[in-house]
Amino acid sequence: MLPNRKAKYYWIDAGLLICGTVLLVFSKWIPGILLLMMALMGFLIRRKPYLHFSDKGVKIHILWVKQHAWSDFNACLLKDGMLSLDFKNNRLFQEVISPNSQSGLNEAEFNAFCIRKISEATDLTTQEELLHQN
Predict the structure, then answer these.
(1) Domain boundaries 50-133, CATH class
(2) pTM metric for this prediction
(3) What does pLDDT average to over the chain?
(4) Are 118 and 75 in contact (CB under 8 A)?
(5) Residue 42 CB: number of other CB atoms within 10 A?
């Protein structure tokens, strides 16, 4: 009946939304609000992350937008549809890139762009540190 597991979870979230709305209509405020919050969190958690790479850095849209400068990264690598972001604070972000979003993407060019931006940012931060030490 359901083609994949994700569809099953969306039906659960829709059921929570309907039950929460019915409870609110019948003046059961606390359980209704709790069910609506659970449905909203279910929808938000299942959203795919969106990443935007620019000259300034990387924006990661998951539940909220987080801006990272290029100086925050040790490495950034796209290989065989897997994007890996290695942060300097020992965090690692990995995401499988969907085939639809890879249509015009060249892995070698993307990796060269990221390496260039990380090295430029690292050079700038080391120069600033040297200026502050003197």
Answers:
(1) mainly beta
(2) 0.68
(3) 84
(4) yes
(5) 16
